[in-house]
Amino acid sequence: MRKDPTQGVTGWTLTLVLFVAVIGGWELIVRLLDVPSFLFPTPSAIAVGLWRGLGSGIYLRHTWVTLVEVIAGFALGSAIGFALGVLVALNRTVAYFLRPYILAFQTIPKVALVPVIVLWFGLGLNSKIVAAAIICFFPVMINTIAGLAAADPDRIALLRAMGASKMQVFRLLRLPTAGPYIFAGLEIAVTFALIGAIVAEFLGAEAGLGMLMQSMNFNMDVAGSFSILVLLSLIGMGLTWAIVLIRRRVLYWEDPADRN
Amino acid sequence: MNTAQTIDTAASPALELRGAAKTYGTPTGGITAFSDFDLNVGEGEFVALVGPSGCGKSSLLKVIAGLSKLTAGQCSVAGESLKGPRRDIGIVFQSPLLFPWRTVLENVLLPVDVQRLGRNSQMSVARELLDLVDLTEFADRYPKELSGGMQQRVGIARALVNTPTILLMDEPFGALDAMTREHLNLQLQRLWMERKKTIFFITHSIAEAVFLADRVVVMTSRPGRIAEICPIDLPRPRDLDTMVTPEFGEHVRHIRQYFGGAEGGLD
Ligand SMILES: Nc1ncnc2c1ncn2[C@@H]1O[C@H](COP(=O)(O)OP(=O)(O)O)[C@@H](O)[C@H]1O
Ligand SMILES: [Mg+2]
Fold first, then answer.
1. What pTM, to 2 d.p., does this model score?
2. Is B22 in the pocket of ligand 1 (CB under 6 A)?
């Protein structure tokens, strides 16, 4: 096997060097060109904003709100997506009647629904949770359908020859086969949920990082906005990482090399 | 008892096919996989079925497994007309079809789980079978850690765990290399002699059929029909030296005449 340049000590060193170079270059260019700070902030200004926000406890409070919205929305949306996926995969009649709606829904840009959701569910947590759920249920549903259909016909025949019922084929074969597909859907869904919650907060909220960012924009505090972007990106990575960890536990038989 | 038709079996028929035929309906008309198939397989008998690919061997096996229905004729197992999958039939396909999320032992226990026989009560049977196929040390490994031949042995143990009386095997060693294949043929013979199962064994290889079977059913293609049923009277247990005896060669040559040419195999 060939040596992978992204692994090991040299990999880490290179990553670090590259990071420092990018940040340093950014700082340098903004300073040399004298770009006004309300148009494009320097990394140092962003770091200061992050430091102050975290130190005063304001960021943590709003992070908590956004995190609750995202996780609740993600849980709700994934549960609905999974349930609908199972229904479609197991019942031909349901699949037949649901298909046109699925196709129609697939083509709607889901964020376009968020203003209406805020109108219906108000400025509190509920509208954010619903927005996150609506945006994130779709990839879970589609991947569940694809995964449950992916079971190998020979293995189905084997189970049937043993006298397995449809439910047993589902439990013993279809569901485990669908595992990798469903988790791929969940990984997409969790970042979608974050988008849904933030967009809903932009449109009207009492708390949360999206709302905070919005108010900073009004005050032309671009460095502050960017510092929240950093926070959001960390949250997104953290959530994805959590899903990956859960996946490793649930899909314990998976070859690490087969994961994408 | 229809004595006139059962004279070709040693004991009471474990499996009986009368005028059996299967035609698949397709948009362009029907494809007849096999027809006019008459066969009695006696209890404890080892019958091999050879024929070129596409002559309907797998279709026949799927019928006996209860996975598809005959379009003409009858099939009965242990004297009962076949209505669907039966618990006294075990099946081994060409590919091992193990479940990657189950350990080797759990894979062997799959029929136990499906038929709700209770893992605890069947555990000793499962372990005994793993012994029989020489996989004791691999009980807690996952399939991906096993070679193809080992996986196929797990498949055989799985087919036997609920102690079926009939074992159906569809080219079970077809995907394996020659050495592994010989080894597994010897193991299968030993297993059959120890456990006294009725085995219906489909293969591509004339030599394999002659080596293993009490009788070899020769099928010709399109639509698949029985050309001849050849009794193989070679003494048991047969071993690798059996394959170089003149009698063995004579049986192989005799069967090969139906297929014109090719070394031991058929395509
Ligand atoms: N489900 C099916 N639908 C239509 N035709 C089939 C089906 N299964 C098998 N056949 C056809 O029946 C014939 C016999 O196939 P098969 O039983 O698999 O042969 P073998 O196992 O001897 O190679 C082939 O021509 C094949 O194309
Ligand atoms: Mg076949």
1. 0.86
2. no
